[in-house]
Amino acid sequence: MRAVVCTRYGPPEVLQLRDLPKPTPRSGEVCIRIFATSVSASDCIVRAFNIPLRLKVPMGAVLGFRAPRNPILGLVLSGEVESAGKDVTQFKPGDQVYAFTAFRFGAYAEYKCLPEKAVLASKPANLTHEQAASIPYGGLLALYFLKQAGIESRRRVLVYGASGAIGTSGVQLAKYFGAEVTGVCSAANLDLVRSLGADAVIDYTKEDFTHNGARYDLILNAVGKRKAVLQAEGSLTPGGRHITVDDSSPKLHAEDLAFLTELVESGRLRPVIDRSYPLEQIVDAHRYVDQGHKRGNVVIAVA
Hints:
Blueprint: E1 2-6, E2 15-19, E3 29-39, H1 41-48, H2 56-63, E4 76-84, E5 96-100, E6 111-115, E7 119-122, H3 129-132, H4 136-148, E8 156-160, H5 165-176, E9 180-185, H6 190-195, E10 200-203, E11 216-221, E12 236-244, H7 254-265, E13 273-278, H8 282-290, E14 297-301
Helix pairs in contact: 4-5
């Protein structure tokens, strides 16, 4: 099979397209033929090993110190179950699925074996595989952090970084849960964020929301505090919550992905794709994501 291998930690050029043996599912696993994946900010962080100094040793122990222990990166896939190992009961060959692979990585390839109990669910029937590949990363992370902050009881929500993968999902999910949503992004993305349902938008290059006197029950920093350290506590209502997407390691579940499928199929959550590249151009895709200005998701067409 064709697969992109991360030969060492470094710039996008460390990624190389190679021919590797096709994996075989073990007991309890399915082998998925991958049609599409995505390049997330997390993929780029792992590829470059761009880790805070205090975390380099523990993360090196998990990922590998000089190169990724699993050299095929990629956190998200959309494809078709090609075969199933012994004792698999939830999926069968031919099923259209999508998944978040987490530390198993492996989505930059034509095939990936995953346990049937992984974060794996039926693909939304109304999406192409490329569109489906743009849902799990931002959708699952936004859902996790919104739930951590008690979104059901938060009436006024501000999403900082509302035009990225997590932010575009965060705006839509906060609206689904009944919140009045303000999105903060650059001028170029104001119309996009409005189209996702935001009640108000703020161009961060012209206005500092922390100084405008508005108060919010929840502020979601969808960029992460390493890139956007927000002194936002003065913009919270009494009992309000400020949460950042790198505050903790999220615990993601297949049930959450199935929930996102329902939202997509009902029209309450839609994919946002900035660009699509073929697998052969994954170096270019990483270069683009490294710039830090993508709108929604960058998708890779694998097959």
